[in-house]
């Protein structure tokens, strides 16, 4: 979704240029312009698109903000030049580019790892984004009302600008939803390690416990059994031993594999609950059926799990 912002920023400026050149309401003509002026008109559209696109692709904090600031300065210069020497309508781009860049920064915050106190910061940003969205929509409705009652003399241009503003409003609403989602604590993989906020969970777990937790997180089913954990460990004898264990109905005292996984899962469960991430529960209420039915990982409501990118 974030990759549409450069496109919308360029489209917003292009719509203004088209309306200024065509002057469909025949109220405020542009005047005579040369072929060089038309070439100059292309520069802002290309600048905002490629600069924003480069910023979107950049995950390094310093490089992102360098590209972001250069783009803002360049567009500010273009707006002043075009508004002063060509047409006043170019000043309407000020509000559009500010809001689009605001949404761009909001959606990039996680990638450039700027925020530390996520819950309070994202809660503040979500409320702020919602407030801006409401004010923006009120402005669009006021403009629409002026068009309907024929108080707006340049009604064709206003419809064009308001159409773009509606798309900007949609992206603002999308950023509100994303901010509310990010208020929750984030569980994510980075460099083969599992983090909750900035805490590396694998640092306090043993290698085997880390592998077990990975098996829960990567498992496409809702639960995972002792046999599945054993087979995933890479032991060539695991599957035969598990079939024998199930057939003879061994308990944890009879099967060292089952006993080991049961103890490891109990320790992982305590640590997950301590960090307020979630818990691990047995699928069956019957203790003798846990081996066959397995265990299930459950996240708490305020946890947002981000699977690793393939």
List keywords for this structure.
4-stranded mixed β-sheet, two-stranded antiparallel ribbon, 6 strands, 2 domains, 8% strand, alpha+beta, 310 residues, 11 helices
Describe this structure in words.
This protein has helices at 4-22, 35-57, 61-85, 93-108, 118-148, 155-182, 207-218, 226-232, 238-247, 256-274, 290-293, and strands spanning 185-190, 193-196, 199-200, 278-282, 295-299, 303-306. The protein is α+β, with helices and mostly antiparallel strands. The chain has 2 domains: 4-183, no CATH class; 187-306. It has a 4-stranded mixed sheet, with no helix packed on it. Strands 4-5 form a two-stranded antiparallel sheet. α3 runs antiparallel to α4. The radius of gyration is 28 Å and the shape is elongated. The model has no long low-confidence stretch (mean pLDDT 85).
Summarize the structure.
With 310 residues, the protein is of the alpha+beta class. It has helices spanning 4-22, 35-57, 61-85, 93-108, 118-148, 155-182, 207-218, 226-232, 238-247, 256-274, 290-293; strands at residues 185-190, 193-196, 199-200, 278-282, 295-299, 303-306. It folds into two domains: 4-183, no CATH class; 187-306.
């Amino acid at each position: 979704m974030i990759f549409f912002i450069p496109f919308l920023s360029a489209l917003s400026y292009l719509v203004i240029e088209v309306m200024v050149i065509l002057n469909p309401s025949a109220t405020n003509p542009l005047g005579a312009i040369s072929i060089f002026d038309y070439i100059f008109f292309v520069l802002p559209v290309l600048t905002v698109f490629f600069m924003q696109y480069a910023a979107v692709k950049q995950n390094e904090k310093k490089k992102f903000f360098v590209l972001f600031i250069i783009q803002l300065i360049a567009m500010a210069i273009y707006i002043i030049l075009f508004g002063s020497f060509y047409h006043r309508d170019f000043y309407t781009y000020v509000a559009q580019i500010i809001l689009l860049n605001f949404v761009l920064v909001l959606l990039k915050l996680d990638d450039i790892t700027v925020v530390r106190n996520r819950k309070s910061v994202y809660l503040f940003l979500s409320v702020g984004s919602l407030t801006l969205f409401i004010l923006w929509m009120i402005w669009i409705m006021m403009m629409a009302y002026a068009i309907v009652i024929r108080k707006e003399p340049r009604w064709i241009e206003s419809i064009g600008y308001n159409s773009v503003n509606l798309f900007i409003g949609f992206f603002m609403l999308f950023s509100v939803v994303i901010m509310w989602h990010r208020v929750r604590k984030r569980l994510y993989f980075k460099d083969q390690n599992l983090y909750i906020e900035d805490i590396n969970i694998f640092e306090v777990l043993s290698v085997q416990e880390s592998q077990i937790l990975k098996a829960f997180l990567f498992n496409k089913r809702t639960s995972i059994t002792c046999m599945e954990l054993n087979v995933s460990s890479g032991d060539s004898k695991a599957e035969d031993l598990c079939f024998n264990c199930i057939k003879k109905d061994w308990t944890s005292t009879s099967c060292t594999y089952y006993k080991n996984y049961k103890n490891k899962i109990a320790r992982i469960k305590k640590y997950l609950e301590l960090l307020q991430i979630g818990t691990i529960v047995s699928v069956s209420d019957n203790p003798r059926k846990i081996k066959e039915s397995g265990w299930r990982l459950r996240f708490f409501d305020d946890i947002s799990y981000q699977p690793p990118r393939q």
